[in-house]
Amino acid sequence: MKILLVDDSKTMRNIQKSVLAQLGFTEIEEACDGQDALSKVKAFAPDLMLVDWNMPNMDGLTFVKTYRQEDKGTPIIMVTTEAEKARVIEAIKAGVNNYVVKPFTPDLLGQRIQETLERAAA
Amino acid sequence: MDPTHITPFVASVQNVFSTMLQLPVTVGDPAIKADPNQSHDVTAIIGMSGDVVGSVALAFSSDTARRVVALFCGMEIEPDSPDFADAVGELANMVCGGAKAGFPDTSRVSISVPSVIVGAGHTIARQSDMPCVLIPCETDCGDITIEVAIRPAPQPVNDNTAAEASA
């Protein structure tokens, strides 16, 4: 299971990596913004992506919209501080499969990852 | 300043620090910033735009910031490391993101990526006509100050109304 983490904060990527390691996922690639993610996603071919919203150069929503023009299937979880209902709807319309609001507990993130993968496999 | 733009920061800082750091925060009474020369050692600043404009700062003493970052990252990080600024900025990002979700329903607000200043005794200069509210926070790691300097965005002038008024 290959997972791409897209977040401009190394601290948040480390926290997410730690949660993923506890769940047994260790094949992880990191990107620091949407542009970086676009440059890596084809070669890495992830099975799941965790994407932040507010990032420099290219934000997460723009990345999701761009990526979804090519790939409709790979599940994407938006992990962001954007908590307003309108933003969640905007993200879902763009092609996000699940949504986690920061701050999050490791349990919550783990639960959302599991349910997203289960839905994708169904 | 509109209190509905202040109280969400109280709830948000408590939520962020308890969830990510398991660190309870006791919040004191917000007050208008009286001393423009109040200094800090580490500050993360985030801009707000949209229906609300201005900036929000999360400010620490050097010792407090080191302790908070160590809790957040699970290890000691030196203040001159880029990872130190990254961690402080991400905390501010979460506090501001959570707060803006608590603004009145009609508000459409965007936040900038954080800027972090690390340097003993710096002060924060703002537009003189922008009111700034200090929210004092006590934690077991030391005191933290949130400086909220935001206001509703000016309403766009309706051209027809302006033309009628000048006629």
Provide a short characterization of the protein structure.
The complex is a heterodimer of chains A (122) and B (167). Helix content of chain A is 48%, strand content 19%. With 122 residues, chain A is α/β, with parallel strands linked by helices.
What this model shows, in words?
The complex is a heterodimer of chains A (about 120) and B (about 170). Chain A has helices spanning about 10-20, 35-45, 60-70, 85-95, 105-120; strands at about 1-5, 25-30, 50, 75-80, 100. Chain A has about 120 residues and is an alpha/beta fold. In chain A, helix 1 (about 10-20) packs across helix 5 and helix 2 (about 35-45) runs parallel beside helix 3 (about 60-70). Chain A is globular. Helix content of chain B is about 35%, strand content about 35%. In chain B, strands 1, 2, 3, 4, 5, 6, 7 and 8 form an 8-stranded antiparallel beta sheet that branches. In chain B, strand 7 and strand 8 (about 140-150) form a beta hairpin. Chain B starts with 6 loop residues before the first helix and ends with a helix. The model of chain B has no long low-confidence stretch (mean pLDDT about 90). The chains are: A alpha/beta (about 120), B alpha+beta (about 170). At the A-B interface, helix 1 of A face helix 1 and helix 3 of B.
